[in-house]
Write a structure and sequence with these properties.
Elements (H helix, E strand, L loop, with lengths): L1 E2 L7 H17 L51 E6 L3 E5 L2 E4 L4 E7 L3 E5 L2 E4 L6 H7 L5 E4 L3 E5 L2 E4 L7 E4 L4 E5 L2 E4 L7 E4 L2 E6 L2 E4 L7 E3 L4 E6 L2 E4 L7 E3 L2 E5 L2 E4 L5 E4 L3 E5 L2 E4 L4 E4 L11 E6 L2 E4 L5 E4 L2 E7 L2 E4 L3 E6 L12 E7 L2 E3 L1 E4 L4 E7 L3 E4 L1 E2 L1 E5 L4 E4 L3 E8 L8 E2 L4 E5 L13 E2 L5 E5 L1
Parallel strand pairs: 1-2, 2-5, 3-6, 4-7, 5-8, 6-9, 7-10, 8-11, 9-12, 10-13, 11-14, 12-15, 13-16, 14-17, 15-18, 16-19, 17-20, 18-21, 19-22, 20-23, 21-24, 22-25, 23-26, 24-27, 25-28, 26-29, 27-30, 28-31, 29-32, 30-33, 32-35, 33-36, 34-37, 35-38, 36-39, 37-40, 39-41, 40-42, 41-43, 43-45
Antiparallel strand pairs: 44-45
Length: 466
């Protein structure tokens, strides 16, 4: 272990770190749109399928999580080959390596400030604790904690051991800023860039590649944090390894990536993902928004906002919601669901049977969408077609709100809970193609239909059901 304390730091690196701390503080506040809450996995490997959570119901009254399973919050004993806990250091073209269990190649903590240009960073040791790796950064190749700060420009990070995350920032004020960096995490449970407990990571023009199970290129864990990524390429090959996994705040601009056998995006609890001009593909669902009751993320109401770019689901639904509320906005994003299911709200393995359905509010702007909206019994979808949006598909138990510039091309027998036509209630916005659409006549929001049947353009009928 090398402990270095130097009092003089490159002014450029110091200004950069200070700027990003301010940026992180701004990101740390939840975005100002509707949402709620959710969590993770009982085994400390958040990317994998969490437990059903039936032994951990929320506390009565506030809907928040009960205490985590015993032992999961014990602090890990962190180690590093290169450790900096005070002072400021600038280094160029250095090799940092660790091959021991539970040992980071670089660990900066407390008042340490490190700037490295073109490093080669390598670790191969395994973790002794999956929880320690996911919650506290044990065995991460590059680690900041307790307010430590690192800037990395160019170079490579390679971690091959189990639980070996590439970059990990944990604790308020802990910061990693990385640009032009290639990150490879190829061990089970190895994420590319990860935060917990309000840590912050800023990524620009990075490539992040993971290969094994429970390893997302970009992720947060217990206590959340913020990751802001721009112009990055992401790839995830393992089971339960989405491109982005949020129990905090994830912001992406011009990201590209493919999750070979998982979702592109997973949001757990009342947490957030905002994507601008990204091109992402999932091979299980496009996005899953859920609450597992594992204790890793509080509340209900994951929020996903996508503007521009493209979003593709090769299997499953483009949007899948279970055991939580979800608030999704799509604005000018090219969307595609090969299964033909655009959105599905369902009861699944998480939560208590009878009260674990999904509830989705979907707002769309300038969208051309093909696919069905399916809300299972005990679930709900409320879709808003706005600003020249066209939906081509059928619906099951879905609320529909359509503005005067938008339309619904019906492709099969459909049912709506509440039908709202903004402005003059003109049924010309619903092109039936000969199919019947039923509405819930018992709901007062549908009184304008007077409990009667109405002809629809294309030969179909809007009919009441009671």
């Amino acid at each position: 272990m090398h402990r270095i304390t130097v009092s003089i730091f490159s002014m450029a690196a110091l200004l950069l770190a200070t700027a990003f701390i301010a940026l992180a503080a701004d990101f740390g506040e939840a975005p100002p749109f509707a949402g709620s809450e959710a969590p993770h996995s009982m085994n400390g490997r958040p990317m994998g399928p969490p437990p059903d959570g039936q032994d951990m119901p929320p506390k009565q009254g506030d809907g928040r999580m009960g205490p985590p399973p015993g032992g999961m919050m014990q602090k890990a004993e962190l180690k590093g080959d290169y450790v900096l806990d005070e002072g400021s250091v600038s280094l160029n073209d250095r090799l940092f390596a660790s091959h021991a269990e539970d040992t980071s190649a670089i660990w900066v903590k407390k008042d340490g400030r490190l700037a490295v240009v073109n490093p080669t960073i390598q670790t191969s040791g395994n973790t002794s604790s999956n929880e320690g790796s996911s919650f506290f950064g044990l065995n991460a190749a590059v680690l900041t904690s307790e307010g430590g700060q690192i800037t990395l420009d160019k170079g490579t990070v390679s971690s091959t051991g189990s639980g070996a995350n590439g970059l990990f920032a944990t604790g308020k004020g802990s910061l990693i800023v990385a640009a032009n960096l290639a990150i490879r995490a190829t061990g089970n449970g190895g994420h590319g860039a990860m935060t917990s407990d309000e840590g912050t990571i800023v990524l620009e023009r990075c490539t992040i590649f993971t290969t094994e199970a429970h390893g997302a290129p970009i992720a947060t864990d217990r206590g959340g944090g913020t990751i802001d990524a721009t112009d990055c390429q992401l790839s995830a090959k393992g089971e339960g390894s989405p491109l982005l996994y949020s129990t905090g705040v994830l912001n992406g601009t011009r990201l590209t990536g493919d999750a070979a056998i998982s979702e592109a995006v997973v949001i757990e609890g009342k947490n957030y993902v905002t994507l601008n001009d990204c091109e992402l593909t999932g091979h299980k669902n496009g996005a899953m928004i859920y609450q597992s009751f594992s204790g890793d993320a509080d509340g209900f109401g994951g929020v996903l906002r996508m503007t521009g770019g493209s979003f593709t689901a090769k299997k499953g639904a483009l949007l899948y919601v279970t055991n939580t509320d979800a608030d999704v906005t799509l604005s000018g994003t090219k969307v595609e669901a090969d299964s033909g299911i655009l959105a599905k709200a369902a009861a699944d393995r998480w939560g208590q049977a009878g009260s674990n359905g999904g509830r989705l509010r979907l707002k769309t702007e300038r969208e051309t969408m093909k696919g069905d909206l399916i809300a299972e019994t005990g679930c709900s979808i409320d879709a808003e077609l706005m600003d020249h949006t066209t939906l081509t598909g059928k619906t099951v138990n879905t609320g529909m709100k359509i503005d005067p510039t938008s339309k619904w091309e019906v492709t099969g027998p459909s049912s709506v809970s509440i039908l709202t036509l903004i402005g003059e209630p003109n049924l010309e916005r619903i092109h039936s193609h000969g199919f019947t659409v039923t509405y819930n006549a018992a709901l007062p929001e549908n009184n304008w239909l007077q409990g009667q049947s109405h002809p629809l353009p294309g030969g179909g009928t809007l009919q009441p059901r009671h």
